[in-house]
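Just curious. Invent one:
>
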Amino acid sequence: MIQINSSYNNARDHYKNSLEQYNNFPDPYNNFFDHYNHSLDHYNRSLDHYNSSLDHYNSSLDHYNNFPDPYNHFLDHYNNFPDHYNHFLDHYNYSLDHYNSSLDHYKRSLDHYNSSLVHYNNSPDHYNNTLDHYNRSLVHYNHSLDHYNNHSLDHDNNFLDQYNRSLVHDNDEDWLSVLALGEMLNLSIYLSIYLSIYLSIYVNIS
């Protein structure tokens, strides 16, 4: 009976834990969906940033390619002002670095977006697995409850009936013991009387 009650309690606790996990599951699912939308927004902003950087890079490249004409035209000016050319060259290199950095950022965002998409697509499987686990736990709980109601209670009732019959049997044996003791006392009295009479007759004859 103790083992069956323990199995029933374990099944009940397992059912409660599964139910709690099932009820709490939509929260992480919704949190992930928010995270997925946030990643998508981040990806779109990175794409816009990348396109802007590409436009800036192309504009700088056009400016750089067209530079020889004004350079030849203002060669004297260039010789007098080399810092201006160096300043422009620095600006070009900076734009190129900014473009490369934006490209790396775009690639990382794309990877993060793809990873989030995979995780999002796998979320229904996780949800279905949890639901299956909950349903199996519910079946196990109902089976344990049926086993408890159909077998454990019968076992308890049979044990109680046997216990009551044992009490009746013990009471019968106690009563028989009392009767046997009474019979022995009566026999002792009869023997004492018979012995007294015999001794009286024997003394009188002598």
Observations:
- The chain has a mean pLDDT of 73.
- The helical segments are 2-24, 26-65, 68-73, 75-80, 82-205.
